[in-house]
Amino acid sequence: MRLEEAVRPEKTGHGETRHGEAETDAAEPEHPFAPYIRTLGRGPGRSRSLTREEGREALRMVLAGEADPIQVGAFLMLLRYRGEDPEEITGLVEAAREAVGAGPAPAGHPGVDLDWPSYGSGRTRGAPWFLLAALALARAGHRVLMHGSNAFTSGMPVLEALPLLGLLPARSRAEALEGVAATGFAYLPLRAMCPRLDGLLHLRSLLGLRSPVNTVARLINPADAPAGVDGVFHPPYIAVHLGVAERLARPRLLVVKGGGGEAERGPGKPVAAHLLAGGEAEVMTLPALTETRATSAELLPLWRGEARDPHAEGTVIGTIALALLAMGRESVPEAADAAARALWERRHG
């Protein structure tokens, strides 16, 4: 039996279907979301990426529940198949920012210094050493808001690491901002910001592939921090991230190819850091910090200073340096590394 025969309602022979509906050839009205799928999926030479405005409205409809689930799956996979376009992704990010209520911290709040997305999902992840880097920065007076979802990581998700360090995730953007004001650090799960957006990320288990929503979530910047440090899994995405940041007039964003797509610097080899500052992009080469390439250290003992491990500490120190460069506290890699090492050593006063 052909597919169309399998899904067509069976006729009863009396002008009705088996479901009792009158047989008709009347065309169904087109769904309002259909034009976006048609634009992306037309034949060769006719399809195109969405404009910024189209991308914004399309994701707004998805997050508002105005698109059919079948349409959502088709939409996400067509976006992936065509490749990520900065103009299109910018519109998607604007819709996501609207959905999560992104914007500056309220009056009287000291503000957030550094936006830190954590959406890594690689198979080579271990402990989230970047979390210790963020906490050390907070101890030094830099206000850090980390947000994310690590549902598909093979390593330790941030949500599992937080209790080991005596911390809890924020339950809302407002609570996260309170935490940043009080301690200098907060972790805000994507599902607490926008359950529907988090649900789109989780469609990876059904579709078998990541979608551009992963890029979108990384670029939300929920508290309009003036600086951000971002990691990607594949180098081609770096230009997309910087292109979106430029279109959104973000003051500073540093992007690296990090382990599992996290903003984390492997200390065993040089790393290229791509910085957008004031609309100008530059690439800095950060040197290797250690010859070691593996670690068996644990998160809490390293944080407390009860254990020493060259690779783990090199990862943390190198990642702190990324943040200092992102914020403009240092402008030269060697100076950033030295400042990061000093900051790490005095994390407990």
UniProtKB/TrEMBL annotation:
Instruction: Report biased composition (Basic and acidic residues) as residue ranges.
Output: 1-22
A single Pfam family it belongs to is: Glycos_trans_3N
Q: Which domain of life is it from?
A: Bacteria
Segments forming domain Glycosyl transferase family 3 N-terminal: 35-99
- Gene3D superfamilies in the record: Nucleoside phosphorylase/phosphoribosyltransferase catalytic domain, Transferase, Pyrimidine Nucleoside Phosphorylase, Chain C
Molecular function, one GO term = anthranilate phosphoribosyltransferase activity
- Keywords assigned: Glycosyltransferase, Transferase
Its GO CC terms?
cytosol
Q: Where is this region: Disordered?
A: 1-52
PANTHER family named among the record's database cross-references:
ANTHRANILATE PHOSPHORIBOSYLTRANSFERASE
User: What's the protein name?
Assistant: Anthranilate phosphoribosyltransferase
What species is given as this protein's source? Muricoccus pecuniae
Question: Organism classification, top ranks?
Answer: Bacteria, Pseudomonadati, Pseudomonadota, Alphaproteobacteria, Acetobacterales
